[in-house]
Amino acid sequence: MPERWPGSFVVDLDGAMIGQILLRRATGHRRPAAVGKADLGYLFLPPAWGSGYAAEACAAALDWFDGVLPGEPVVLTTQTANVGSMRLAAKLGFTEVERFQAWDAEQWLGLRSPVTPSV
Ligand SMILES: CC(C)(COP(=O)(O)OP(=O)(O)OC[C@H]1O[C@@H](n2cnc3c(N)ncnc32)[C@H](O)[C@@H]1OP(=O)(O)O)[C@@H](O)C(=O)NCCC(=O)NCCS
To answer: 93: Cβ below 6 Å to ligand 1?
Structure first.
């Protein structure tokens, strides 16, 4: 990002922006299990869906994260009705912490446990 805001990524495909990934500190999260943890968010333009770009880019962002903050967990919140997002979360290694109601829909809170360094 031009301002060099760590954890904020623009995803570029052949010179065009196709998506955005944010890793932010969830200071004000409504679920206690997520408060204070790094929180992953992603948003891709519909023409870029269905090609694996989101999975590839999120995996790269999480690799970056593991490098700068080793051993830290990451949380992710998405609607359970968002099938593509739920599938992506599973692919990235997030597992369910809990489901809760918010914003007039069932939400899914997932956690990606820290990668244990191999000895
Ligand atoms: C959530 C979102 C990022 C998922 O995007 P996506 O493109 O489906 O995700 P992936 O990158 O994992 O791509 C998976 C699809 O690409 C397909 N694909 C095609 N070629 C592929 C390849 N070479 N490698 C991997 N996957 C490939 C997969 O088969 C899969 O399709 P399927 O879901 O029909 O099985 C996207 O729908 C989005 O931006 N939605 C709006 C924002 C949003 O909902 N954000 C979450 C709210 S918190």
So the answer is: no
